[in-house]
Design goal:
Layout: H1 8-16, H2 21-27, E1 38-42, E2 48-51, H3 53-68, E3 73-77, H4 82-94, H5 99-102, E4 119-124, H6 138-146, E5 152-154, E6 170-173
Antiparallel strand pairs: 1-2, 3-4, 4-6, 5-6
This protein binds zinc ion (ZN).
Zinc ion (ZN) is lined by residues 114, 119, 121, 167, 170.
Length: 175
């Protein structure tokens, strides 16, 4: 598959960000279609978070199970549209970061699991929120032991084949 199979609006976003399709070919990252998602709840920053219905169900079951073990899991980020992901890139490019540097941490629009409505960035309390140190937390240990039971997997463990920095907070649901 090549980028000519991508939807027009995704190609337009890449052009606007001056991203070369070669970048995608070198890394061989899968691209993901958007949604379908529904608004599910309001987060600690009063933002409405959306995700796909099955992910919401699986999340609720997992959150309950974690709470019974004394772990208060919380969603920091769920669905992000291609356009929202492009806005993140635009901010970083405007701040002078090179695309190669941004790519270590953030997928370009179209290549992030967050578009699918199945990926969740998780935290527990105020410790190590969206930080590599989350890997050492009790919550992360719990997720590594139990999340698979609810259909969630850690997409980017250390040494992941996508070439992203480890993201121990990022969990994706799959049927
Ligand atoms: Zn994430």
């Amino acid at each position: 598959m090549n980028t000519t199979d991508w939807p027009e609006n995704l190609l337009a976003l890449w052009q606007r960000l001056r991203l070369s399709p070669q970048l995608w070919q070198t890394r061989q990252l899968p691209w993901f279609a958007e949604g379908p998602v529904q608004p599910c709840y309001t987060d600690r920053f009063q933002r409405t978070q959306a995700m796909c219905a099955e992910t919401w169900q699986a999340w609720q079951a997992m959150q309950d199970a974690a709470a019974r073990d004394g772990i208060e899991l919380e969603i920091i980020s769920a669905y992000r549209s291609w356009a929202q992901q492009a806005a993140i890139w635009e901010r970083k490019l405007a701040a002078g970061q090179a695309p190669e540097e941004i790519l270590r941490w953030s997928a370009p629009p179209g290549l992030s699991e967050h578009h699918t409505g199945r990926a969740l960035d998780l935290a527990a309390g105020e410790d190590a929120v969206l930080s590599p140190a989350f890997a050492e937390s009790e919550a992360c240990q719990w997720l590594r032991m139990h999340a698979a039971r609810f259909g969630f997997h850690e997409s980017y463990p250390s040494g992941n084949s996508s070439g992203f920095q480890p993201e121990p907070w990022h969990w994706c649901w799959q049927a």
